[in-house]
């Protein structure tokens, strides 16, 4: 496979190979010598940039003594790394807990989210998260506490090491998730977070009418070293998109949303007015 820019599925493949190499105790240099490769070839592979053939991947995994199951999974990831986008099927059926997405959130330098129906995930307080989790048709009642805890932990990425822009529809703010007390505390939390210099919360007012974001919510993650990634999720599936053409479509959508969104101060005023009215 010719060298290409690092992709989401390519990095997932590279991380899996890295784990396999670490188990052997071999250094990358020694493994490269055994395979007759340049060390840079392994570095590119681990970074998700390709530059190897399927046969070479199988040879490398043989040196790592991977199991047949692990080898099959990694080879399948390698073959998929040349495709546009990656549809991921979480084993536990809960998109928010997917390791790949969480790891990309942590590495992003900027996260832009559009949420038309609910408060964006990383801005949700634990009580709000629990109500949303309980309402999911794909999460068993026994799993609600664990899923709620896992989703709530994501709020820890809200620090000054990255920038955040959240577009949220006024309807999502007015939707009473949980009892009145939970809902009011959620809105108050948004007001507290909105004054942080690295967080921008911009409301799409109901008066905006039809707009570019009506097709559904999404995340856009920008990185220091990787190409921009768009992340979408359904009830039990996740889709990562990182080809330039598709990313441009979502970036254009964000520009249209920015054109109709209230600014930060106006958005705080809307949230405050909703609180005052209840």
Describe the structure in your own words.
- With about 280 residues, the chain is of the alpha/beta class.
- The protein folds into two domains: about 10-85, 434 Repressor (Amino-terminal Domain); about 85-275, Endonuclease, Chain A (2-Layer Sandwich).
- It is built from twelve helices and seven strands.
- The protein has a seven-stranded mixed sheet with strand order 1-7-6-5-2-3-4, sandwiched between helices.
- α4 (about 55-65) runs antiparallel to α5, α7 packs across α8 and α10 packs antiparallel against α12.
- The termini are far apart.
Give the overall shape, derived from the CA principal axes: elongated
> Which fold does the CATH topology of the largest domain refer to?
Endonuclease, Chain A
Strand percent estimate: 5-15%
CATH class term of the largest domain:
Alpha Beta
Give the H and E element order: HHHHHEHEHHEHHEEEEHH
**Tally of extended strands?**
7
Query: Helix fraction?
Result: 40-55%
Architecture (CATH level 2) name of the largest domain: 2-Layer Sandwich
Mean pLDDT: 89
Q: Which value, in Å, is the CA radius of gyration?
A: 21 Å
Number of helices: 12
Sheet with the most strands? 7 strands, mixed
Distance N to C terminus: 60 Å
Poorly predicted segments:
none
Provide a concise account of the structure shown.
With 278 residues, the chain is α/β, with parallel strands linked by helices.
